[in-house]
Structure formats: structure tokens, C-alpha cells
Predict the structure.
Amino acid sequence: MKVIVTGGTGYIGSHTIVDLLNHNFEVVCIDNLSRSKKYALEGIEQITGKKPIFYQIDLCDKEAVSKVFQEHKDAIGIIHFAALKSVPESVEQPLLYYANNINSLVNVLQAIHTYQIPNFVFSSSCSVYGNADTLPVTETTTIQTAESPYAHTKQIGEDIIYNFSKAHPFHQNILLRYFNPVGAHPSALIGEIPLEKPNNLVPYITQTAIGKLQQLTVFGNDYNTRDGSNIRDYIHVCDIAHAHTLALQYLIDKKNATTVEVFNLGTGKGVSVLEAIAAFEKVSNQKLNYIIGPRRAGDVVAVYADKTKASTHLDWHCQYTLEDAMLSAWKWELKMQELF
Ligand code: UDP
């Protein structure tokens, strides 16, 4: 069965393609390579022995999108990762984020409608919950105001899909709300490739350990948490990737009760920034150079998932621990020194 993956050379996209190929899907990968490297395709091939069909096109180019979808209208589904994802960049350049993330989604939905591709899986984010008032966060936790234009594009994206599905109930949709994806494939052949300054904690940790960055700053240790630092739900990227294969199969098997279903993808366990650093130090045998700094604007104090729904409906269970994730992130950082 053929599946189209947009953003397939990106961080979660590339790990998901590996999982799909390992489960015998045929993959058509689309990416404009604006925030990723073509190298990911080599890594995917080395791991799986298989090669996805690749198109370097921009999803904001409606005609190009339509052409690729026409060629692959026999696809059983599409997994739509492609989007810009830096929170600070979205604050500085909101229009870039709205133009890119919304137009690309609309073009993809238009194409799947034109060519009657039945199943659609969308990359959403726990950032749609904003500052959630109850923890853990369930799929029915009230959506608050978005904390950034990036998060707002995910809220709008979800709304667009709901309205699309009301008008066109032929299409079956799943929204996957990721918590904090971390780590890399255990082979160290693919992983996240931060093109400029990293945006997230784990690449900051590994780049500090390897000496690309001088020092890590922990953004605040005066929060009302067990050690004063923020709490997040760090989940191994390979576990996230596998959830996409399961979600797609769930739609193919017509197990969904409604035309749009939502799932949180997190471990269900909150981990503080200081605990994450300690886990890294333990598995890598590195002493991390870090200081405690002021709070970062816009950070929520604590957020972690209730993952019951994905466990029961998709039969999705995490295979990797935080230590596994930290070790794989470290191995990938070392590997990148050789590669780039
Ligand atoms: N964080 C930090 N120092 C850094 C980067 C991140 O202390 O250099 C903290 C940040 O304040 C947050 C956690 O690490 O509490 C996760 O941040 P990240 O940006 O990875 O994810 P998000 O804030 O989107 O959950």
C-alpha cells in the first residue's frame, strides 16, 4: 500500500518513513528541503534497504502538489508533517508561519479531495492546549489561547480539518498531538539536523556536550515543581514514528468512530529539565556545563500527556525510555560530526 509523506526528510517524517517501510508500505516522500537535508533519504535507505520515491516540491505551489497527487492517486493515505516549527521564529515572523503552514495544508487537502485519497494523518502538537489548566492533558482538555503563532497555525490546521471533514465525510482524519519528541534512530543513521541554532532542549544539551555551544542555560529553577525547573513529556521519536503507522492502519481498517479522531502522543510521564540533564549525563558519561538562568518568556510550567486513548484505540505503547532517547541523541550528535 502506498502512502504519501510530506515533510518526509524532516525529523519526525524521516523516522516515520523508516517505520512505514519496515511495515511494508510503499512511500512517496515530498519535501522542499527548506529545513531538512536530502541526506535523510540516504539514512532511510541504509536502515531499511528501501528507497522512498522523492519529490522536491513546495507544498505552497498548488500546481506542483496537484501533479504529484495525480501521479499517486492510488495512495491509500497521506501523512502531513511539512510545516515550519520554531516557536521563537514564529513570534518574529508570524506571517511566514501563517502563509506556509496554512497554505500548504489547504493545498494538500484540496489535492486529496480532488484525487479521492481517503485517509489523512496530521501532525499536530500539544502546544494547541496552551496553558492547560489540568494535568495530565487529555484529548478533551479545553484548548486555550495559543502561546505562539506556531501553535496558532496548529489550532487553525485542526479547525480546517474539522470543517473539511464535515463537508467531505468521505475523508477519514487523525490529528496526532505530539508532546516533546526527542532522540534519534538507534542506528544513528538519521536524527534531527538543526540547521541553525537549535530550538529545543535536547539538541541544546548534545551540542553543549560536544562543544558546539559553550554552555546550556536552564531557564528557571524557581517554578512550583519538584525541583523548580519546568516539566515536559519527552517522548522518543521512534515511538512517535510508530504511532503514525498505527494511526494510518487504524483508518485503513475503518476502526475510527468519527471522521476526525485526536490522539495525544506522549509517555504520560513528566520530566523536569534538571532530570533530563541528569539522564543525559548518566548515559553519555559527560558532565554538562550548565547554569541556571532566568525564566524563558512563554514557557508553560508543566505539561504532560494522558496517553490512555492512543494506548487503547491504537494499541500504541512506548518502547523506549528517556535514557534510550538521550543515548540515541548523543550517538546522533557524534555521528553528525562525521557526516556534515
Ligand atoms: N530549556 C532550557 N534551556 C534550553 C532550552 C530549553 O532550560 O536551552 C527548557 C525550556 O524552558 C522548557 C524545556 O527545556 O522547559 C523544553 O523546552 P523545548 O524548547 O525543548 O520544548 P517546549 O518548550 O516547546 O516544550
The mean pLDDT is 97. The longest helix spans residues 94-114. The longest strand covers residues 119-125.
